[in-house]
Amino acid sequence: MLAAIGLDERHESAYRALVSVGAADVADLARRLTLGERETERALRLLERQGLAAQSSARPGRWVAAPPGVALGALLTQQRHELEKAELAAALLAEEYRAGAAEAAVHDLVEVVTGADAVARRFLQIQLGAAQEVCALVTGDPVVVSGTENDAEERAADRGVRYRVVVERSVFDLPQGITELSAALGRDEQVRVVDQVPTKLVIADGTLALVPLTAPATEPAALVVHASGLLELLSGLFESVWRDALPLRLGESGVTEEEPDGPDATDLEVLSLLLAGLTDASVAKQLDLGLRTVQRRVKRLMELTGVTTRLQLGWHAYERGWVARNR
């Protein structure tokens, strides 16, 4: 728990033990920690340098714990200060990058990354750098990165990053396939399945994409695509695959495919009135429904069509024949 301020598990245990007794000599503390005395003394010396422990002036050979509220508070303040400086440096670098990207040459919009380690690093960086959403197409043939080796999804999800993932059905046949899909669904990721995806693909925040390249008898490579027309095409490709894929859900029997139900008669009435320009409240009053009921139905229809805005929902409603244009 105190690793963020520079204490590993052993030193944290030493400090906790010293706090619990208030003061102790090296031998007594070594017994409590089941460590050697020399190792215990080294731990105490480090705590002393951190301001968390000190040798007793009244009884030589005994060590006393510094008050946690004071000592840890000072370390946390210092750590916050360092983080603030790092955030400022990152913001300045990001601004420099944006300024340079505005005048980037065409050949700078696509990078070629070569080598398994390099591709894996960029894969992690793209996910860890995402602030809002990661979209991915996943095949059943992992070459460089597999789910068991990558904890970036969990770390990104903890920061509130949304995931939308389409996997090939062959992923179910991988040794850890079901386990990884269950973990993804457990993190509230949206996962869908198709028979086959056109390519492996990862897109972060709609501004950066990674496309692995497959070439027999050569080392792994990938394209990193920055904001450009090519990136827009890749985003469109993902949305097309996502729209036609079947949702996965996690039930008592494990991961199963969920056939999407079509809109019912009330859904179609809601859609028609919204497209006619009525507000949610007006639709609710017109159909004698609760406002939250209308909003839930609209949200379900957006999930069903795989869209994120109501404008997109209206377009898909026309495309799918859910509503008819008045002549």
Summarize the structure.
By secondary structure, this protein is α+β, with helices and mostly antiparallel strands. Helix content is 48%, strand content 18%.
Summarize the structure in words:
Residues 260-317 form the HTH luxR-type domain. It holds the Pfam family TrmB. This is Helix-turn-helix domain-containing protein. By secondary structure, the protein is an alpha+beta fold. The chain has 3 domains: 1-103, Arc Repressor Mutant, subunit A; 108-257, Endonuclease Chain A (Endonuclease, Chain A, 2-Layer Sandwich), CATH 3.30.870; 265-319, Orthogonal Bundle (Arc Repressor Mutant, subunit A), CATH 1.10.10. The protein contains 12 helices and 12 strands. The protein has helices at residues 9-21, 26-33, 37-49, 68-101, 116-128, 152-158, 177-186, 229-244, 265-275, 280-287, 291-305, 310-319; strands spanning 23-25, 53-55, 62-65, 110-114, 133-138, 162-168, 190-194, 201-204, 208-213, 221-226, 246-251, 254-257. The strands form 2 sheets. Strands 4-10-9-8-5-6-7-11-12 form a 9-stranded mixed beta sheet, sandwiched between helices. Strands 1-3-2 form a 3-stranded antiparallel beta sheet. Helix 6 links the parallel strand 5 and strand 6. Helix 1 packs across helix 3, helix 9 (265-275) crosses helix 10 and helix 10 packs across helix 11 (291-305). The model has no long low-confidence stretch (mean pLDDT 78).
